[in-house]
Amino acid sequence: xxxxxxxxxxxxxxxxxxxxxxxxxxxxxxxxxxxxxxxxxxxxxxxxxxxxxxxxxxxxxxxxxxxxxxxxxxxxxxxxxxxxxxxxxxxxxxxxxxxxxxxxxxxxxxxxxxxxxxxxxxxxxxxxxxxxxxxxxxxxxxxxxxxxxxxxxxxxxx
Length: 158
Known about the structure:
Elements: H1 11-34, H2 38-41, H3 52-72, H4 80-85, H5 91-111, H6 114-118, H7 132-157
Helix pairs in contact: 1-5, 1-7, 3-5, 3-7
């Protein structure tokens, strides 16, 4: 791959990532609304350790931290441990978290300039530097991966 990922400042790519993140956060909200009850969002089965509520908290915390706080300066402070330990959070609260993540992601990515995208993301990824655009693509893939898990969980539980 080489070092060309450090210069992937294509604003069209980030605009596409922005559309995907906003779309998929909306889809996540729709998935949570489709559960038959608040309790079902937290139900586990077999080897499934992370129910949809956990995945929603994780995805919101992830995006609010890596996009909102790190790139947008929102001041959001992530508690990753709580994303995986909290249980029984009502859907209304989960949906409010999704809405906050959506607003922060959309607003932050709308304001980024080519210069913001051209360089290194402010935080290392797996201990290594990564280009900002490349990291944003990674975040979109991470959201899509867990969104698929939520969809599968809803169909399994529902």
